[in-house]
Write a structure and sequence with these properties.
The complex is a heterodimer of chains A (302) and B (427). Chain A is built from nine helices and eleven strands. By secondary structure, chain A is α/β, with parallel strands linked by helices. Chain A has a six-stranded mixed sheet. A four-stranded antiparallel beta barrel of chain A has the order 8-9-11-10. In chain A, helix 3 links the parallel strand 3 and strand 4. In chain A, helix 6 runs antiparallel to helix 7. Chain A is globular and about 55 Å long. Chain B contains eight helices and 21 strands. Chain B has a seven-stranded antiparallel sheet with strand order 7-14-10-11-13-9-8. The chains are: A alpha/beta (302), B alpha+beta (427).
Amino acid sequence: MSTMTSTTLSPLESEAVTIFREVAAEFERPVLLFSGGKDSVVMLHLARRAFAPARIPFPIMHVDTGHNFDELIEFRDRTVEEFGVELVVASVQDSIDAGRIKDVSGPRSSRNQLQTVTLLDAITANGFDAVFGGGRRDEERARAKERIYSHRDEFGQWDPKNQRPELWDLYNSRHRRGEHLRIFPLSNWTELDVWEFLRAREVPLPPLYFAHKRQVFSRDGMLMAVNEHVEMLEGEEPFEATVRFRTIGDTTCTAAVESAAFSIDDIVAETSVARITERGATRADDRVSEAGMEDRKRKGYF
Amino acid sequence: MRRLEPLRFATVGSVDDGKSTLIGRLLHDSKSIFEDQLEHVEAVSKKRGNDYVDLALLTDGLRAEREQGITIDVAYRYFSTPRRSFIIADCPGHIQYTRNMVTGASTVDLATVLIDARHGVVEQTRRHSLLVSLLGVPHLVIAVNKMDLVDYSEERFEEIREQFTEFAQKLELRDVTFIPISAFAGDNVVDRSANMNWYEGSTFLNHLESVYVASDDNLIDVRFPVQYVIRPHTNEHQDYRGYAGVPAAGTIKPGDDVIVLPSGLESTIAGIDNFDSLAAGVDTLDHARPGEAVTIRLADNLDVSRGDMICRPHNRPQVTQDLEAMICWMDSEADLTPRTIYTMKHTTRTVRAMVTDLRYRLDINTMHRDEEATSLTLNEIGRVVLRATEPVFVDDYRRNRQTGSFILIDESTNQTVAGGMIRLTNT
């Protein structure tokens, strides 16, 4: 009989796999949010690891602002095909066309916040009762407070002052009809843990994460990619730089960092000594106020 | 992945004893704070007119917390040193948020109880130490904080040590270490204090880096709660039937004789799989230990489903519908009253249960058992007798934290209303 030693599984990976299985066992209609970003890629791989040799027993959903990096959409479609999962696309443009939300305009506009309505509408329309997100507690101070099973009322709202107790690994999945739970299997992972997983499992990623030459311009001390969805302001000049993205949202609110990290090894080395958090370095959306993320999360944001 | 097992630890203690400041100091002096986070904290401190940088702002992430300068819910923080990585649960000190403290402390290997050197052991010190004891946290650090405000007095430190030791006689604490610190001034947190030469023990960080937790796992009693049945229904794996889960205790090996509860049917372990072993095409993993997510195959085709328990024929948990437990009541809306039916989650098994008797309510301060009590209200602790609608497979919590714990859920509000620790003996 051929055997293998099971020392390859880290405690964090076991924890995440266990959460995936628990949700599949207790909820009727889970869905995994998939943006093509590195955290959601890790999530998809963990889901596959949880149910092997069976297929992943739930669909994935992309909330599409229409302002994507092309590389990301290509990567998404390739991944969906490889994993044989069902993809649900919730489109912000559709929500705008249906009059559910008003589009924003102007050089500093971003559809980032509009996603909340599209997301909640799609959850309701599909009857999803558990929504897996790749959020990590090390990302941001409001996320640092959130439970692994995070309850959302019928308006999709989070009540941070009244979270359910969550003891041991006994998760409370009960909810009323129309309510749902957000599930965060990567809660206890750090950015470095994510990269170490991607390296150890040799997981393919969108090319945007690796250093490449790109036309950028400087705004608020961040390097934004020159692209059709962002209007440059007076005094903003495009220039070429060698950059990579530490996080990838849509093109209007994600900035690049200068980097010479061309491989995952380089990125792990760079992340180990990083002095600025990934969101601090690259996310315009978190700079709105002291509690920008908390306010968005309360309304049902990711 | 990482060379060392991460250490999960919680900071608990009374409000204003400096829990968040200690974590801020730990992160700051171990150079784990990112520049943008520090800039943010500095800016907010300045905006508020503080004389100094308030490191507590690093963990108090909610608007309401920052407005009031208190911790309402657990904040989780992550940092690593070259020797180990850490997951910190920064727990609230206010009595009304005790349930959040219990949430944070239920999963940790080590708890740090902070004591303000000026005030010594106070009610919240006792409450939190009792909860740490009930939750069976294997290691405890008593960090006597604000030593700078008592002139770094050895005498005062010894006084508090005696105070605590006397009170702790009534608790079940296994490994207790006392460390004099000043989180505000940085003494003995990361760097050794020049102000307390009389103290010869480890600094706080040094202690965290070296505490040995692997021996805390129960490797003897095999307990495998079946979490999820994997049946691929694909051409490639037509006959595959695996039981996914995590050993709650014991080491499982291929060829082991096992029994499945509640059916009592016996079989042997045919193989242990995970994604990597399946991808590599090997027959089985050589073993599975507590905490490792795996999938088990049995040699015989038995009826096994979620909520069943796989164990060794000669070492079984107790199979029972009647339980005794210490519970912590966590519902702010309704009190615990006997005869109400709740949903009970125990391992992967969900049943309904009713509290048939409240034996006593525990007075946190005096440890007095009030046998006249007829109900428990928010944050109270009591000894109860429960009757479940179906058998559950239990061990004493002190022997096994997984098979000895449960939660109760209110069936009308869906709130988690209690955490329970099973007692199989009369203590």
